[in-house]
Amino acid sequence: MTDKIRIPKIQLDKSISFLSDNFKYLFLFYILAECALLFRFPVQYVSDSAYYLKLAQDCIRSNSFYPTPHQLYDDLIIAPLYINMIILLLKIYNSTITIGIYNIILNSLQLYLLYKIVSHLFNEKTAVIAALFYMLYLNNAGMIVVNLTELSYTTLLLLSVYFYLKEGKFDLLYAGLFCGASIAVRPLGWALLIAYLIVLIIKHPKGKLLRHISFVIIGFAAFIIAFGSITKIYSGYFIYTSTTGPINILMSANDNANGGFYSIQSDEKGPGYIPGGDTLTFRQKQDIMQNRGVSWIKEHPFKWISFIPNKIILLFRSDDITVSRLVFPDFNFQKFLKILKHDPSAPQNYSAGFLSLWVLLLLYHHLFYFAGLILFVYGLFRFHKDILQNSNLLLFLIYAFAGIAITMIADSDIRFKYPYMFVVFICNAYFIAGLLKPYLTKVRPEVQE
User: Are residues 395 and 418 in contact, defined by beta-carbon separation less than 8 angstroms?
Assistant: First the structure.
């Protein structure tokens, strides 16, 4: 009877140990698979991906960095650090393949940083579990064939966390520096700074508290000041982050809003329409849209609050952020439904084989995604005492909850949860290690503080 109990323990232990010992080969295989994916399927940018590419190409034609003088009259300035990185990449070789290779580097770096962070907090066996979550989550692979801010933003975020956990004074400076850089890509980086400050107050005695906070803030401020000053030199404006806040707030603060995306500038009757807007700078239009959004919220506070449940549902109800792009460059669930209904406007150039592959990918991915969410919620309840006693785990959760809370102020979309998925991977690896503790050798030691 004893032998029968030991067999699964030994087999499971050997399997995890084998993966841990050979992780470098698993890592290499993942990179090669990404390269094959990039060069197998033609990259065709649509929607936001195409818009970011257009902004960068406009700057190259104007021989300027972003934003150019004429782009100051756009409705908003978006991801200035990211757009400028794309400009530099396209100056090396003006092709979407260059962006794809850059994405492979970022995606691989994200995986490496996730592995190192979890190894530091727990051990290599738990790190392998987190890495497997990352690699089996298809949106990570799909990110290499799109041109979105999420990959750059999350990589900078993980770099910041990596240095923060090392806790040397220069490491804390780097943590603040990369946190500031993440805000230059997406304003949600403020959520990480909030998490740092809360956790440092919880974690450190008064003697060390001021020193640790000072180094993080100095690094953070140094990047913001340096980057903002550079943009001011060539644009005349101190720009260090996206100015999407007012327009995003207005999207969910108007008579037609429901918490999700709503085009506010479709016609002259739209809430975002500004007479003579072409003659106004982004700052002027930003002020107008912010005043409109805030005024609507003041007039309809309960209606605005009532959107929050729908915003949460829109954020988590599905997860095809990039998965469809693994099969088709421009395909989505709505087009699939049109094909099923034999809608005359449905696209006709998709074979039954490719549609079947798309369905299988979406089915696998969503089963994996929802299983991960269920495990995450279950683990929060099962291991809540361990989590509350450990500041490093609290850091990830505070960041995620603060970021989601910021998102709830504006409109919501399934894409907006990607920057928090690495928190799910880390926590789920910890939870699985805890659940498998009787069957694995030293899989979940105490978390390093």
Answer: no
Residue 302 lies in a domain: yes
Dihedral of alpha carbons 114, 117, 121, 122, sign: positive
What residues make up the domain containing 354?
Answer: 2-252+286-439
Whole-number Å distance between alpha carbons of 220 and 201: 17
Average predicted confidence (pLDDT) for the chain: 86
- Evaluate whether residue 268 is within a structural domain: no
Query: Tokens 């066996």 sit at which residue?
Result: 125
The overall pTM is greater than 0.85:
yes
What do you get for the CA distance between the two ends of the chain, in Å?
40
The model's confidence at residue 56, banded by pLDDT at 50, 70 and 90, is very high
> Could you tell me which residues come within 8 angstroms of residue 336 by beta carbon, excluding any fewer than 6 positions away?
355, 358, 359
Per-residue pLDDT reduced to its tens digit, 150-193:
999 999 999 999 999 988 889 999 999 999 999 999 999 999 99
Mean pLDDT, rounded, for 428-436: 87
**Is 235 a member of any domain?**
yes
436-440-442 Cα angle (round to 5): 110
Return the C-alpha torsion angle 5, 9, 14, 20, nearest 10. 170
Q: Is residue 267 situated within a structural domain? A: no
Task: Count up the domains in the chain and report the number.
Answer: 1
